[in-house]
Design a protein that fits this description.
Length: 627
Protein backbone atom coordinates (compact mmCIF):
# COMPACT_ATOMS: atom_id res chain seq x y z
CA UNK A 1 0.00 0.00 0.00
CA UNK A 2 2.89 2.35 0.85
CA UNK A 3 4.68 1.55 -2.46
CA UNK A 4 1.54 2.40 -4.38
CA UNK A 5 1.08 5.72 -2.52
CA UNK A 6 4.62 6.74 -3.47
CA UNK A 7 3.78 6.01 -7.08
CA UNK A 8 0.83 8.37 -6.85
CA UNK A 9 3.05 11.21 -5.68
CA UNK A 10 5.57 10.68 -8.47
CA UNK A 11 3.07 10.29 -11.30
CA UNK A 12 0.96 13.26 -10.19
CA UNK A 13 -2.20 13.69 -12.37
CA UNK A 14 -1.02 10.90 -14.67
CA UNK A 15 -1.96 8.47 -11.88
CA UNK A 16 -5.61 9.12 -12.76
CA UNK A 17 -5.23 6.60 -15.58
CA UNK A 18 -5.44 3.78 -13.06
CA UNK A 19 -8.86 2.32 -12.60
CA UNK A 20 -9.62 2.77 -8.91
CA UNK A 21 -11.96 -0.17 -9.05
CA UNK A 22 -9.04 -2.63 -9.54
CA UNK A 23 -5.70 -1.50 -8.11
CA UNK A 24 -2.81 -3.21 -9.97
CA UNK A 25 -0.32 -5.44 -8.14
CA UNK A 26 2.55 -4.58 -10.45
CA UNK A 27 3.72 -1.17 -11.62
CA UNK A 28 2.91 -0.60 -15.31
CA UNK A 29 5.68 -0.09 -17.78
CA UNK A 30 6.81 3.43 -18.68
CA UNK A 31 5.13 3.35 -22.07
CA UNK A 32 1.80 2.20 -20.73
CA UNK A 33 1.94 4.75 -17.90
CA UNK A 34 2.71 7.55 -20.33
CA UNK A 35 -0.16 6.54 -22.61
CA UNK A 36 -2.61 6.33 -19.75
CA UNK A 37 -1.39 9.72 -18.52
CA UNK A 38 -1.92 11.21 -21.97
CA UNK A 39 -5.43 9.79 -22.10
CA UNK A 40 -6.18 11.18 -18.64
CA UNK A 41 -5.00 14.62 -19.67
CA UNK A 42 -7.14 14.43 -22.79
CA UNK A 43 -10.18 13.60 -20.68
CA UNK A 44 -9.43 16.51 -18.36
CA UNK A 45 -9.01 18.75 -21.38
CA UNK A 46 -12.36 17.62 -22.78
CA UNK A 47 -14.00 18.36 -19.42
CA UNK A 48 -12.43 21.82 -19.42
CA UNK A 49 -13.72 22.40 -22.96
CA UNK A 50 -17.18 21.15 -21.97
CA UNK A 51 -17.27 23.73 -19.19
CA UNK A 52 -16.61 26.46 -21.77
CA UNK A 53 -19.38 25.54 -24.22
CA UNK A 54 -21.94 27.62 -22.33
CA UNK A 55 -21.97 30.57 -19.95
CA UNK A 56 -24.79 28.96 -17.94
CA UNK A 57 -23.99 27.87 -14.41
CA UNK A 58 -26.08 24.72 -14.63
CA UNK A 59 -24.39 23.63 -17.85
CA UNK A 60 -20.94 24.10 -16.30
CA UNK A 61 -21.95 22.21 -13.17
CA UNK A 62 -23.26 19.42 -15.36
CA UNK A 63 -19.96 19.25 -17.28
CA UNK A 64 -18.05 19.06 -13.98
CA UNK A 65 -20.19 16.24 -12.63
CA UNK A 66 -19.86 14.35 -15.90
CA UNK A 67 -16.08 14.78 -15.71
CA UNK A 68 -15.92 13.60 -12.10
CA UNK A 69 -17.81 10.48 -13.13
CA UNK A 70 -16.03 9.80 -16.43
CA UNK A 71 -12.47 10.93 -15.61
CA UNK A 72 -12.12 10.02 -11.95
CA UNK A 73 -14.89 7.39 -11.93
CA UNK A 74 -16.79 8.59 -8.82
CA UNK A 75 -20.34 7.26 -8.31
CA UNK A 76 -21.75 10.31 -6.51
CA UNK A 77 -20.79 13.98 -6.77
CA UNK A 78 -22.18 17.01 -4.89
CA UNK A 79 -21.42 20.72 -5.23
CA UNK A 80 -22.05 23.22 -2.44
CA UNK A 81 -21.58 26.97 -2.99
CA UNK A 82 -21.25 29.72 -0.42
CA UNK A 83 -24.51 31.60 0.14
CA UNK A 84 -24.61 35.30 -0.86
CA UNK A 85 -24.45 36.38 2.78
CA UNK A 86 -21.44 34.12 3.42
CA UNK A 87 -23.01 32.25 6.32
CA UNK A 88 -23.60 28.84 4.76
CA UNK A 89 -22.93 26.29 2.04
CA UNK A 90 -25.90 25.57 -0.21
CA UNK A 91 -26.27 22.27 -2.05
CA UNK A 92 -26.70 23.42 -5.66
CA UNK A 93 -26.10 20.21 -7.64
CA UNK A 94 -25.87 16.49 -6.92
CA UNK A 95 -25.51 13.36 -9.04
CA UNK A 96 -25.69 9.64 -8.40
CA UNK A 97 -28.43 9.53 -5.76
CA UNK A 98 -31.79 7.98 -6.62
CA UNK A 99 -35.01 9.85 -5.94
CA UNK A 100 -35.62 13.50 -5.18
CA UNK A 101 -32.88 15.18 -3.21
CA UNK A 102 -34.17 17.70 -0.66
CA UNK A 103 -32.51 21.14 -0.54
CA UNK A 104 -29.89 21.70 2.09
CA UNK A 105 -27.76 24.52 3.48
CA UNK A 106 -24.90 23.72 5.83
CA UNK A 107 -23.75 26.48 8.17
CA UNK A 108 -20.22 27.73 7.74
CA UNK A 109 -19.24 26.45 11.15
CA UNK A 110 -17.73 23.32 12.70
CA UNK A 111 -21.15 21.68 12.64
CA UNK A 112 -20.67 21.33 8.86
CA UNK A 113 -17.77 18.97 9.62
CA UNK A 114 -15.45 18.09 6.71
CA UNK A 115 -17.24 20.52 4.37
CA UNK A 116 -16.36 23.38 6.71
CA UNK A 117 -12.84 21.96 7.17
CA UNK A 118 -12.16 21.90 3.42
CA UNK A 119 -13.63 25.40 3.01
CA UNK A 120 -11.58 26.91 5.84
CA UNK A 121 -8.25 25.11 5.29
CA UNK A 122 -8.57 25.39 1.50
CA UNK A 123 -7.18 21.84 1.24
CA UNK A 124 -8.84 18.59 0.20
CA UNK A 125 -10.28 16.39 2.95
CA UNK A 126 -10.31 12.63 2.23
CA UNK A 127 -11.56 9.67 4.25
CA UNK A 128 -10.35 6.51 2.50
CA UNK A 129 -10.33 4.16 5.50
CA UNK A 130 -11.58 4.05 9.08
CA UNK A 131 -8.33 5.44 10.49
CA UNK A 132 -8.90 8.70 8.59
CA UNK A 133 -12.14 9.45 10.48
CA UNK A 134 -10.16 10.58 13.50
CA UNK A 135 -8.35 13.22 11.45
CA UNK A 136 -11.42 15.20 10.34
CA UNK A 137 -14.02 17.46 11.94
CA UNK A 138 -17.16 15.29 12.21
CA UNK A 139 -20.40 16.36 10.54
CA UNK A 140 -23.14 17.29 13.00
CA UNK A 141 -25.58 14.41 13.45
CA UNK A 142 -28.49 16.61 12.37
CA UNK A 143 -27.10 16.75 8.82
CA UNK A 144 -26.05 13.09 8.50
CA UNK A 145 -29.60 12.05 7.62
CA UNK A 146 -29.46 13.94 4.31
CA UNK A 147 -28.87 11.48 1.42
CA UNK A 148 -26.00 13.51 -0.04
CA UNK A 149 -24.09 13.62 3.25
CA UNK A 150 -24.69 10.03 4.42
CA UNK A 151 -21.31 8.40 3.68
CA UNK A 152 -18.15 7.23 5.47
CA UNK A 153 -15.70 7.20 2.53
CA UNK A 154 -15.39 10.44 0.57
CA UNK A 155 -13.27 13.22 -0.88
CA UNK A 156 -14.14 16.92 -0.37
CA UNK A 157 -12.15 19.58 -2.23
CA UNK A 158 -12.42 23.39 -1.99
CA UNK A 159 -13.43 25.56 -4.93
CA UNK A 160 -10.83 28.34 -4.97
CA UNK A 161 -10.52 31.21 -7.43
CA UNK A 162 -8.65 34.48 -7.15
CA UNK A 163 -7.69 33.77 -3.56
CA UNK A 164 -11.34 33.28 -2.56
CA UNK A 165 -13.07 30.07 -1.56
CA UNK A 166 -16.47 30.04 -3.24
CA UNK A 167 -17.60 26.55 -2.20
CA UNK A 168 -16.70 22.87 -1.98
CA UNK A 169 -17.32 19.71 -3.99
CA UNK A 170 -17.64 16.21 -2.56
CA UNK A 171 -17.47 12.76 -4.18
CA UNK A 172 -17.78 9.13 -3.10
CA UNK A 173 -18.50 5.59 -4.31
CA UNK A 174 -21.26 4.70 -1.87
CA UNK A 175 -23.67 3.10 -4.40
CA UNK A 176 -21.04 0.64 -5.68
CA UNK A 177 -19.07 0.45 -2.38
CA UNK A 178 -15.83 0.56 -4.38
CA UNK A 179 -12.80 1.87 -2.50
CA UNK A 180 -11.57 5.33 -3.34
CA UNK A 181 -8.09 5.36 -4.82
CA UNK A 182 -5.65 7.88 -3.35
CA UNK A 183 -4.70 8.58 -6.94
CA UNK A 184 -8.17 10.07 -7.56
CA UNK A 185 -7.75 12.89 -5.05
CA UNK A 186 -5.42 15.02 -7.13
CA UNK A 187 -7.37 14.89 -10.43
CA UNK A 188 -10.61 15.52 -8.53
CA UNK A 189 -8.99 18.55 -6.90
CA UNK A 190 -7.85 19.69 -10.34
CA UNK A 191 -11.42 19.31 -11.65
CA UNK A 192 -12.64 21.41 -8.70
CA UNK A 193 -10.09 24.05 -9.64
CA UNK A 194 -11.45 24.09 -13.20
CA UNK A 195 -15.01 24.29 -11.86
CA UNK A 196 -14.16 27.23 -9.59
CA UNK A 197 -12.67 29.15 -12.51
CA UNK A 198 -15.66 28.27 -14.71
CA UNK A 199 -18.17 29.39 -12.07
CA UNK A 200 -16.26 32.62 -11.50
CA UNK A 201 -16.26 33.26 -15.24
CA UNK A 202 -20.03 32.67 -15.27
CA UNK A 203 -20.49 35.13 -12.41
CA UNK A 204 -18.37 37.75 -14.11
CA UNK A 205 -20.15 37.16 -17.41
CA UNK A 206 -23.55 37.59 -15.78
CA UNK A 207 -22.37 40.72 -13.98
CA UNK A 208 -21.01 42.11 -17.25
CA UNK A 209 -24.26 41.32 -19.07
CA UNK A 210 -26.23 42.90 -16.24
CA UNK A 211 -24.06 46.01 -16.42
CA UNK A 212 -24.42 46.11 -20.19
CA UNK A 213 -28.19 45.85 -19.86
CA UNK A 214 -28.17 48.48 -17.13
CA UNK A 215 -26.01 50.73 -19.32
CA UNK A 216 -28.34 50.16 -22.27
CA UNK A 217 -31.35 50.91 -20.10
CA UNK A 218 -29.58 53.95 -18.71
CA UNK A 219 -28.76 55.24 -22.19
CA UNK A 220 -32.32 54.57 -23.32
CA UNK A 221 -33.64 56.22 -20.20
CA UNK A 222 -31.36 59.22 -20.68
CA UNK A 223 -32.56 59.54 -24.27
CA UNK A 224 -36.17 59.37 -23.14
CA UNK A 225 -35.44 61.74 -20.28
CA UNK A 226 -33.84 64.16 -22.71
CA UNK A 227 -36.95 64.05 -24.92
CA UNK A 228 -39.20 64.63 -21.92
CA UNK A 229 -36.91 67.39 -20.64
CA UNK A 230 -37.00 69.21 -23.97
CA UNK A 231 -40.77 69.29 -23.67
CA UNK A 232 -40.27 71.35 -20.49
CA UNK A 233 -38.52 74.06 -22.50
CA UNK A 234 -41.08 74.53 -25.27
CA UNK A 235 -43.23 77.07 -23.46
CA UNK A 236 -43.30 79.14 -20.29
CA UNK A 237 -47.02 78.66 -19.85
CA UNK A 238 -47.41 76.34 -16.85
CA UNK A 239 -50.39 74.36 -18.13
CA UNK A 240 -49.04 74.21 -21.67
CA UNK A 241 -45.62 73.14 -20.46
CA UNK A 242 -47.02 70.44 -18.18
CA UNK A 243 -49.44 69.10 -20.78
CA UNK A 244 -46.58 68.71 -23.28
CA UNK A 245 -44.02 67.41 -20.80
CA UNK A 246 -46.26 64.96 -18.97
CA UNK A 247 -47.55 63.46 -22.19
CA UNK A 248 -43.96 62.99 -23.38
CA UNK A 249 -42.96 61.51 -20.02
CA UNK A 250 -45.86 59.03 -20.13
CA UNK A 251 -44.81 57.84 -23.59
CA UNK A 252 -41.13 57.67 -22.64
CA UNK A 253 -41.63 55.52 -19.55
CA UNK A 254 -44.72 53.60 -20.67
CA UNK A 255 -46.97 54.99 -17.93
CA UNK A 256 -50.74 54.98 -18.29
CA UNK A 257 -51.17 58.20 -16.32
CA UNK A 258 -48.68 60.94 -15.43
CA UNK A 259 -49.85 63.92 -13.41
CA UNK A 260 -48.58 66.61 -11.08
CA UNK A 261 -50.25 67.89 -7.95
CA UNK A 262 -49.33 71.57 -7.79
CA UNK A 263 -49.16 72.73 -4.18
CA UNK A 264 -49.93 76.09 -2.64
CA UNK A 265 -47.53 77.73 -0.22
CA UNK A 266 -49.59 76.22 2.61
CA UNK A 267 -49.03 72.73 1.16
CA UNK A 268 -52.57 72.15 -0.09
CA UNK A 269 -53.19 70.75 -3.56
CA UNK A 270 -54.14 73.81 -5.63
CA UNK A 271 -54.75 71.95 -8.85
CA UNK A 272 -53.91 68.75 -10.66
CA UNK A 273 -52.54 68.71 -14.21
CA UNK A 274 -52.03 65.44 -16.02
CA UNK A 275 -52.08 63.05 -18.94
CA UNK A 276 -54.81 60.63 -17.82
CA UNK A 277 -55.68 56.98 -18.41
CA UNK A 278 -59.13 58.32 -19.26
CA UNK A 279 -61.24 61.40 -18.71
CA UNK A 280 -63.11 59.49 -15.99
CA UNK A 281 -59.83 58.74 -14.19
CA UNK A 282 -58.90 62.42 -14.13
CA UNK A 283 -62.41 63.39 -13.02
CA UNK A 284 -62.46 60.81 -10.22
CA UNK A 285 -59.05 61.97 -8.99
CA UNK A 286 -60.54 65.43 -8.45
CA UNK A 287 -62.72 63.99 -5.72
CA UNK A 288 -61.50 63.89 -2.16
CA UNK A 289 -59.46 60.89 -1.08
CA UNK A 290 -55.89 59.65 -0.90
CA UNK A 291 -52.96 61.14 0.99
CA UNK A 292 -50.06 60.22 -1.29
CA UNK A 293 -49.21 63.87 -2.04
CA UNK A 294 -49.21 64.69 1.64
CA UNK A 295 -47.02 61.63 2.35
CA UNK A 296 -44.43 62.51 -0.32
CA UNK A 297 -44.45 66.17 0.72
CA UNK A 298 -43.79 65.14 4.32
CA UNK A 299 -41.05 62.58 3.59
CA UNK A 300 -39.51 64.51 0.66
CA UNK A 301 -38.55 61.11 -0.77
CA UNK A 302 -39.85 59.00 -3.67
CA UNK A 303 -42.85 56.79 -2.97
CA UNK A 304 -42.39 53.47 -4.81
CA UNK A 305 -45.37 51.11 -4.84
CA UNK A 306 -44.86 48.05 -7.01
CA UNK A 307 -48.28 46.96 -5.74
CA UNK A 308 -50.63 49.77 -4.71
CA UNK A 309 -52.50 47.42 -2.39
CA UNK A 310 -49.48 47.75 -0.07
CA UNK A 311 -50.67 51.24 0.96
CA UNK A 312 -54.46 51.52 0.63
CA UNK A 313 -54.32 54.10 3.41
CA UNK A 314 -52.68 56.72 1.16
CA UNK A 315 -53.51 55.65 -2.42
CA UNK A 316 -56.46 57.50 -3.98
CA UNK A 317 -59.55 55.24 -4.47
CA UNK A 318 -59.71 56.33 -8.12
CA UNK A 319 -56.50 54.38 -8.83
CA UNK A 320 -58.06 51.14 -7.60
CA UNK A 321 -61.27 51.84 -9.53
CA UNK A 322 -59.42 52.37 -12.82
CA UNK A 323 -57.09 49.38 -12.67
CA UNK A 324 -53.82 50.98 -11.59
CA UNK A 325 -51.42 48.29 -10.31
CA UNK A 326 -48.18 50.19 -9.61
CA UNK A 327 -47.23 53.81 -9.06
CA UNK A 328 -44.31 56.01 -8.16
CA UNK A 329 -44.40 59.55 -6.84
CA UNK A 330 -41.57 62.08 -6.55
CA UNK A 331 -41.35 65.39 -4.68
CA UNK A 332 -40.78 68.40 -6.94
CA UNK A 333 -38.58 70.58 -4.72
CA UNK A 334 -37.71 74.16 -5.66
CA UNK A 335 -34.58 76.19 -4.99
CA UNK A 336 -35.99 77.54 -1.73
CA UNK A 337 -36.51 73.92 -0.56
CA UNK A 338 -40.27 74.30 -0.87
CA UNK A 339 -42.15 71.34 -2.31
CA UNK A 340 -43.78 72.85 -5.41
CA UNK A 341 -45.64 69.71 -6.31
CA UNK A 342 -45.69 65.92 -6.48
CA UNK A 343 -45.08 64.01 -9.74
CA UNK A 344 -47.01 60.74 -10.18
CA UNK A 345 -46.58 57.93 -12.72
CA UNK A 346 -49.27 55.23 -12.70
CA UNK A 347 -49.23 51.85 -14.48
CA UNK A 348 -51.97 49.32 -15.19
CA UNK A 349 -49.31 46.58 -15.51
CA UNK A 350 -47.22 45.72 -12.40
CA UNK A 351 -43.76 47.32 -12.51
CA UNK A 352 -40.38 46.41 -10.96
CA UNK A 353 -39.09 50.01 -10.85
CA UNK A 354 -35.31 49.29 -10.99
CA UNK A 355 -33.01 51.70 -9.19
CA UNK A 356 -31.77 53.15 -12.49
CA UNK A 357 -35.32 54.17 -13.43
CA UNK A 358 -35.95 55.71 -10.01
CA UNK A 359 -32.71 57.73 -10.34
CA UNK A 360 -33.74 58.94 -13.81
CA UNK A 361 -37.19 59.99 -12.66
CA UNK A 362 -35.74 61.70 -9.58
CA UNK A 363 -33.48 63.68 -11.91
CA UNK A 364 -36.49 64.52 -14.06
CA UNK A 365 -38.42 65.80 -11.03
CA UNK A 366 -35.47 68.13 -10.30
CA UNK A 367 -35.63 69.46 -13.86
CA UNK A 368 -39.38 69.80 -13.52
CA UNK A 369 -38.88 71.89 -10.38
CA UNK A 370 -36.60 74.32 -12.25
CA UNK A 371 -38.97 74.50 -15.21
CA UNK A 372 -41.94 75.05 -12.90
CA UNK A 373 -40.21 77.85 -11.04
CA UNK A 374 -39.24 79.55 -14.30
CA UNK A 375 -42.72 79.12 -15.74
CA UNK A 376 -44.38 80.27 -12.53
CA UNK A 377 -42.16 83.36 -12.38
CA UNK A 378 -43.00 84.16 -15.98
CA UNK A 379 -46.68 83.42 -15.45
CA UNK A 380 -46.73 85.49 -12.28
CA UNK A 381 -45.16 88.49 -13.99
CA UNK A 382 -47.52 88.11 -16.95
CA UNK A 383 -50.48 87.75 -14.65
CA UNK A 384 -49.51 90.78 -12.62
CA UNK A 385 -49.13 92.75 -15.82
CA UNK A 386 -52.50 91.57 -17.10
CA UNK A 387 -54.16 92.16 -13.73
CA UNK A 388 -52.88 95.72 -13.73
CA UNK A 389 -54.18 96.17 -17.28
CA UNK A 390 -57.60 94.73 -16.45
CA UNK A 391 -57.94 96.82 -13.31
CA UNK A 392 -56.85 99.92 -15.23
CA UNK A 393 -59.43 99.13 -17.91
CA UNK A 394 -62.08 98.69 -15.23
CA UNK A 395 -61.13 102.02 -13.70
CA UNK A 396 -61.35 103.60 -17.13
CA UNK A 397 -64.74 102.00 -17.72
CA UNK A 398 -65.95 103.26 -14.35
CA UNK A 399 -64.87 106.78 -15.25
CA UNK A 400 -66.27 106.61 -18.76
CA UNK A 401 -69.64 105.01 -18.12
CA UNK A 402 -72.29 105.06 -15.43
CA UNK A 403 -74.19 102.22 -17.08
CA UNK A 404 -74.00 99.35 -14.59
CA UNK A 405 -74.58 96.71 -17.28
CA UNK A 406 -71.55 97.94 -19.25
CA UNK A 407 -69.29 98.06 -16.20
CA UNK A 408 -70.37 94.69 -14.81
CA UNK A 409 -69.94 93.13 -18.24
CA UNK A 410 -66.31 94.27 -18.22
CA UNK A 411 -65.93 93.04 -14.62
CA UNK A 412 -67.10 89.57 -15.66
CA UNK A 413 -64.80 89.51 -18.69
CA UNK A 414 -61.77 90.36 -16.52
CA UNK A 415 -62.72 87.81 -13.86
CA UNK A 416 -63.22 85.06 -16.44
CA UNK A 417 -59.93 85.82 -18.20
CA UNK A 418 -57.60 86.05 -15.22
CA UNK A 419 -59.22 83.32 -13.13
CA UNK A 420 -59.28 81.12 -16.25
CA UNK A 421 -62.88 80.18 -15.55
CA UNK A 422 -65.51 78.72 -17.84
CA UNK A 423 -68.41 80.72 -16.38
CA UNK A 424 -68.87 84.06 -14.60
CA UNK A 425 -71.93 85.81 -13.21
CA UNK A 426 -73.11 88.45 -10.73
CA UNK A 427 -76.08 88.10 -8.40
CA UNK A 428 -77.50 91.27 -6.78
CA UNK A 429 -79.74 91.76 -3.78
CA UNK A 430 -83.41 92.24 -4.52
CA UNK A 431 -84.88 95.53 -3.29
CA UNK A 432 -86.41 95.09 0.15
CA UNK A 433 -85.19 91.47 0.41
CA UNK A 434 -82.33 89.42 1.83
CA UNK A 435 -82.17 87.22 -1.27
CA UNK A 436 -80.01 87.53 -4.42
CA UNK A 437 -80.97 87.12 -8.06
CA UNK A 438 -78.56 86.64 -10.98
CA UNK A 439 -78.63 89.86 -13.04
CA UNK A 440 -75.50 89.71 -15.21
CA UNK A 441 -73.56 86.77 -16.68
CA UNK A 442 -71.07 85.52 -19.26
CA UNK A 443 -71.71 82.23 -20.98
CA UNK A 444 -75.02 80.56 -21.83
CA UNK A 445 -78.10 82.13 -20.28
CA UNK A 446 -80.04 79.85 -17.96
CA UNK A 447 -83.81 80.27 -17.72
CA UNK A 448 -83.68 80.17 -13.94
CA UNK A 449 -81.12 82.99 -13.59
CA UNK A 450 -83.66 85.76 -13.04
CA UNK A 451 -86.30 83.67 -11.30
CA UNK A 452 -84.32 81.72 -8.69
CA UNK A 453 -83.75 83.51 -5.41
CA UNK A 454 -80.41 82.79 -3.73
CA UNK A 455 -81.19 82.85 -0.03
CA UNK A 456 -78.74 83.30 2.86
CA UNK A 457 -76.98 80.06 3.83
CA UNK A 458 -78.06 78.15 0.73
CA UNK A 459 -75.48 77.01 -1.82
CA UNK A 460 -72.20 78.82 -2.44
CA UNK A 461 -73.79 82.24 -3.01
CA UNK A 462 -75.98 81.95 0.07
CA UNK A 463 -72.97 80.99 2.15
CA UNK A 464 -71.06 84.09 1.00
CA UNK A 465 -74.16 86.24 1.53
CA UNK A 466 -74.50 85.02 5.10
CA UNK A 467 -70.80 85.00 6.13
CA UNK A 468 -69.55 87.93 4.05
CA UNK A 469 -66.38 85.93 3.25
CA UNK A 470 -65.02 84.42 0.01
CA UNK A 471 -65.60 80.74 -0.60
CA UNK A 472 -64.22 78.24 -3.08
CA UNK A 473 -64.60 74.52 -3.67
CA UNK A 474 -62.69 72.02 -5.81
CA UNK A 475 -65.73 69.77 -6.23
CA UNK A 476 -69.14 71.37 -5.75
CA UNK A 477 -71.18 68.15 -5.72
CA UNK A 478 -69.09 66.45 -3.02
CA UNK A 479 -68.25 69.39 -0.75
CA UNK A 480 -70.00 68.82 2.61
CA UNK A 481 -69.77 72.56 3.41
CA UNK A 482 -72.25 73.39 0.65
CA UNK A 483 -75.98 72.85 1.09
CA UNK A 484 -77.63 70.90 -1.71
CA UNK A 485 -80.42 73.43 -2.41
CA UNK A 486 -79.00 74.39 -5.81
CA UNK A 487 -77.11 71.15 -6.61
CA UNK A 488 -79.30 70.27 -9.59
CA UNK A 489 -78.83 73.75 -11.04
CA UNK A 490 -75.04 73.39 -10.62
CA UNK A 491 -75.14 70.03 -12.38
CA UNK A 492 -77.19 71.55 -15.20
CA UNK A 493 -74.44 74.14 -15.70
CA UNK A 494 -71.74 71.43 -15.42
CA UNK A 495 -70.04 73.11 -12.46
CA UNK A 496 -67.17 71.13 -10.92
CA UNK A 497 -65.02 73.78 -9.21
CA UNK A 498 -66.40 77.12 -8.07
CA UNK A 499 -65.51 80.33 -6.28
CA UNK A 500 -67.58 83.26 -5.04
CA UNK A 501 -66.69 86.56 -3.34
CA UNK A 502 -68.91 89.20 -1.73
CA UNK A 503 -69.72 92.56 -3.35
CA UNK A 504 -69.85 95.00 -0.44
CA UNK A 505 -71.54 98.38 -0.62
CA UNK A 506 -71.40 100.59 2.48
CA UNK A 507 -70.49 97.61 4.67
CA UNK A 508 -73.33 95.38 3.51
CA UNK A 509 -73.16 92.42 1.11
CA UNK A 510 -75.31 93.62 -1.78
CA UNK A 511 -74.18 91.00 -4.29
CA UNK A 512 -71.95 88.03 -5.04
CA UNK A 513 -69.48 87.57 -7.90
CA UNK A 514 -69.19 83.94 -9.10
CA UNK A 515 -66.67 82.11 -11.32
CA UNK A 516 -66.97 78.39 -12.13
CA UNK A 517 -65.06 75.70 -13.97
CA UNK A 518 -66.71 72.78 -15.71
CA UNK A 519 -63.64 70.54 -15.27
CA UNK A 520 -61.52 69.62 -12.24
CA UNK A 521 -59.50 72.85 -12.18
CA UNK A 522 -59.65 74.32 -8.67
CA UNK A 523 -59.15 78.03 -8.11
CA UNK A 524 -56.10 79.31 -6.24
CA UNK A 525 -55.32 81.82 -3.51
CA UNK A 526 -54.13 84.16 -6.26
CA UNK A 527 -57.44 83.79 -8.11
CA UNK A 528 -59.33 84.62 -4.94
CA UNK A 529 -57.25 87.72 -4.22
CA UNK A 530 -57.81 89.02 -7.76
CA UNK A 531 -61.53 88.27 -7.70
CA UNK A 532 -61.88 90.25 -4.47
CA UNK A 533 -60.27 93.27 -6.15
CA UNK A 534 -62.58 92.91 -9.12
CA UNK A 535 -65.55 92.66 -6.75
CA UNK A 536 -64.50 96.00 -5.25
CA UNK A 537 -64.74 97.55 -8.72
CA UNK A 538 -68.14 95.93 -9.18
CA UNK A 539 -69.27 97.46 -5.88
CA UNK A 540 -68.08 100.89 -7.01
CA UNK A 541 -69.91 100.49 -10.32
CA UNK A 542 -73.15 99.47 -8.63
CA UNK A 543 -72.92 102.25 -6.07
CA UNK A 544 -72.10 104.85 -8.73
CA UNK A 545 -75.00 103.66 -10.84
CA UNK A 546 -77.36 103.88 -7.89
CA UNK A 547 -76.11 107.34 -6.95
CA UNK A 548 -76.43 108.45 -10.55
CA UNK A 549 -79.91 106.97 -10.78
CA UNK A 550 -80.92 108.69 -7.56
CA UNK A 551 -79.48 112.01 -8.67
CA UNK A 552 -81.18 111.69 -12.04
CA UNK A 553 -84.49 110.85 -10.41
CA UNK A 554 -84.29 113.85 -8.10
CA UNK A 555 -83.31 116.10 -10.97
CA UNK A 556 -86.29 114.89 -12.99
CA UNK A 557 -88.58 115.41 -10.00
CA UNK A 558 -87.29 118.92 -9.47
CA UNK A 559 -87.60 119.75 -13.16
CA UNK A 560 -91.12 118.36 -13.35
CA UNK A 561 -92.21 120.12 -10.18
CA UNK A 562 -90.78 123.35 -11.59
CA UNK A 563 -92.75 122.93 -14.84
CA UNK A 564 -95.95 122.24 -12.91
CA UNK A 565 -95.37 125.27 -10.67
CA UNK A 566 -94.76 127.51 -13.69
CA UNK A 567 -97.93 126.28 -15.34
CA UNK A 568 -99.96 126.94 -12.21
CA UNK A 569 -98.87 130.55 -12.29
CA UNK A 570 -99.12 130.97 -16.06
CA UNK A 571 -102.58 129.52 -16.69
CA UNK A 572 -105.97 129.39 -15.02
CA UNK A 573 -107.28 126.66 -17.33
CA UNK A 574 -108.27 123.86 -14.91
CA UNK A 575 -108.44 121.27 -17.68
CA UNK A 576 -104.94 122.02 -18.99
CA UNK A 577 -103.50 122.14 -15.50
CA UNK A 578 -105.13 118.83 -14.56
CA UNK A 579 -103.76 117.15 -17.69
CA UNK A 580 -100.26 118.41 -16.93
CA UNK A 581 -100.41 117.16 -13.34
CA UNK A 582 -101.45 113.58 -14.21
CA UNK A 583 -98.77 113.39 -16.92
CA UNK A 584 -96.14 114.59 -14.44
CA UNK A 585 -97.18 111.89 -11.98
CA UNK A 586 -96.72 109.23 -14.65
CA UNK A 587 -93.28 110.59 -15.50
CA UNK A 588 -92.05 111.07 -11.96
CA UNK A 589 -93.19 107.79 -10.45
CA UNK A 590 -93.11 105.52 -13.46
CA UNK A 591 -96.78 104.64 -12.90
CA UNK A 592 -98.91 102.91 -15.52
CA UNK A 593 -101.86 105.24 -14.99
CA UNK A 594 -102.88 108.28 -13.00
CA UNK A 595 -105.99 110.34 -12.40
CA UNK A 596 -107.11 113.60 -10.79
CA UNK A 597 -110.42 114.16 -8.97
CA UNK A 598 -111.70 117.59 -7.94
CA UNK A 599 -113.55 117.99 -4.64
CA UNK A 600 -117.09 119.29 -5.15
CA UNK A 601 -119.11 121.51 -2.76
CA UNK A 602 -121.24 118.53 -1.74
CA UNK A 603 -118.18 116.55 -0.80
CA UNK A 604 -118.13 114.29 -3.84
CA UNK A 605 -115.05 113.79 -6.05
CA UNK A 606 -115.32 114.51 -9.77
CA UNK A 607 -112.78 112.89 -12.16
CA UNK A 608 -111.43 115.69 -14.29
CA UNK A 609 -108.16 114.24 -15.78
CA UNK A 610 -106.71 110.79 -16.68
CA UNK A 611 -103.06 110.02 -17.41
CA UNK A 612 -103.93 106.85 -19.35
CA UNK A 613 -105.74 107.70 -22.64
CA UNK A 614 -107.31 104.25 -22.75
CA UNK A 615 -109.16 104.96 -19.50
CA UNK A 616 -110.08 108.57 -20.19
CA UNK A 617 -113.49 107.73 -21.72
CA UNK A 618 -114.69 105.77 -18.70
CA UNK A 619 -112.89 107.85 -16.12
CA UNK A 620 -113.63 111.49 -17.00
CA UNK A 621 -116.80 112.83 -15.44
CA UNK A 622 -117.08 109.98 -13.01
CA UNK A 623 -118.34 111.12 -9.59
CA UNK A 624 -117.25 109.43 -6.40
CA UNK A 625 -119.92 110.17 -3.75
CA UNK A 626 -118.86 111.67 -0.47
CA UNK A 627 -118.48 109.41 2.50
Amino acid sequence: MDRHARAVVVSSPLSAVKDQASLPTEAPGPLREAEEGRQALERLYRVALAMQTSWGREERLGAFIHGAHEVVDFDRVSVLLATPDGTGLELVRTHGEKGTIPPAILPLSRSAGPFYQAFQTRRPVAVLRDEDLGKIVPLDSGYQSHPSFRTTRFVIAPLIVGGRTIGVAGADNKPSRRPISPASIEPFTLLCQLLAVALEETRLHLETRAREQETTLLCTGLTLLNQASRALQRTLNVDGMLNNALGELARSFGAGTVFVDLLSESGDVERRVGDWLSEAHGRDLSRSGGRASEFVQLTRAPLVLRDITERPDIVHPAHFAHGVKSLVAFPVVGQEHRVLGVLFLCYQVPQRFPDSEIHLLSAYSDQLAMALENAQLYEESERRRREAEVLAELTGTLNASLDVRTVLGRVLEGAKELCRSDLARVALREAGSDALVVRHWLGPRRPWYETTRIEPGKGVGGRVLRTGRPFRTAHYAEDPRISKDYLELAREMGVVAGMAVPIRIDGRVDGVLFVDNCSPRPFTDRDEAFLLRVADHAAIAIKNARLYEEATRRRREAEEMGRVARMLTESLDVSALSERIVQSVLHLFGARSSGLRLLQPDGSLLAIAAGDPSRAHSWLGHVLPSG
